[in-house]
Amino acid sequence: MIPMTYGMMNQTTRILISSIFEFAYSAFDGFRTLSKQEQTQLVHNFYPFISTLDSAYRMHKYLPERETMCLVSYASYLDVDTIATFLSDTPNSRYREEATRMMNCYLTNEVRPMREKMKRWNPSEDEFMAFVGISFWSLERTIVSEQVHQMADKYREQLLRELDTLYRDILQLDYYASRMGEALLFLASIQGSFFEMRSNLGVLKLMDVFEDHMLMAQLHE
């Protein structure tokens, strides 16, 4: 893996968005019946969920000792010791010191606690994938049509039933309410992290450290 730079962000974000579309098309038949606008809205809503879920899960599995490190793409990462590399090609270096402080705070105060929550949850691969699906249909942050709401309710109920079967019949857990609670708490914490990220990105744009056309910032608006 290589350290992420600002100049790489738009390309890696576009690749992730494309991958989300492919995931939705293959995982949910109903997604294909929606309008292009509705599909795009769901994919954009899902972006912060999958970014955080995938990073926390893979780091927990493969590099648990790097507590403030997050994966920005499948082959690049950001950590407190690579912030200078990330900011090295930003368009404006005037506020780079303040940007460094903000990013350090985010990695320490948001990424590290998220990693701790993932450690407590410690999901199996099947469990993790079920919650990826559930989070795709988590629509608390967006306004959608009644048709999309009904579709979301259907898929969430289906995935929760599959989780129930996984816990009882495959993992053979008699009492799994607390485990389910840890997972739902993790998803809820992503919402809080989203708003913190949106605030930070807004400030960095105001300081002209990040440009208006930065795709990741647009996806947090």
From TrEMBL:
Family annotation (PROSITE patterns): NR_LBD (PS51843)
GO cellular component, one term: nucleus
Domain annotation NR LBD: ranges: 1-221
Recorded superkingdom: Eukaryota
Listed GO MF terms: DNA-binding transcription factor activity
Residue ranges of the TM segments: none
Keywords on record: Receptor, Transcription, Transcription regulation
InterPro entries attached to this UniProt entry: NHR-like_dom_sf, Nucl_hrmn_rcpt_lig-bd
Alphabetized PANTHER family for the sequence: HIGH ZINC ACTIVATED NUCLEAR RECEPTOR PROTEIN, NUCLEAR HORMONE RECEPTOR FAMILY MEMBER NHR-86-RELATED
Name recorded for this polypeptide: NR LBD domain-containing protein
Organism: Pristionchus entomophagus
Classification of source organism: Eukaryota, Metazoa, Ecdysozoa, Nematoda, Chromadorea
